[in-house]
Amino acid sequence: MTEEKKTFRDETDSVFWQGITRGELLLQKCNGCGAIPGPGASFCPECWSGDLTAIKATGRGRVHSFVVYHRAFSENETPPYNVALIALEEGARIVSTVENGNNVKVGDLVKATWSSSRSPRAVLSFTVVNDEGRKREK
Questions:
Q1: Are residues 28 and 55 in contact, defined by beta-carbon separation less than 8 angstroms?
Q2: How far apart are alpha carbons 138 and 16 in whole angstroms?
Q3: Cα(84)–Cα(123) distance, rounded to whole angstroms?
Q4: Closest to 124 (Cα-Cα) out of 79, 69, 57, 55
Q5: Contact between 39 and 92 (Cβ < 8 Å)
Q6: What is the pTM of this model?
């Protein structure tokens, strides 16, 4: 008997992961009420409709909350690193890292970036930017 490899990705968030592979942040939008649930939603949490359409997000948002880890919980990370809850412009929230985020603050304006430095696939993270959308200098 072969053991099936478990993955956190499944058909409910395939649109999101296909977009990440192409360097796009795709979310689902409810055709019934216009709400935009977070990645992985198979129905609208506002009106319970299953009629969702993929949209391309701006990739901009604000840091809602974050933690800084000083211990590696994965071989993909080198401490210290952060994990942030990003409130996207579209209304959905997403968990990701903020690059060079040692000085990240709640309320910081961020923009999605993609890198492949730690993985053969594109990896979504965010960078703190100024009000004009340019990377914030230290």
A1: yes
A2: 32
A3: 15
A4: 57
A5: yes
A6: 0.80
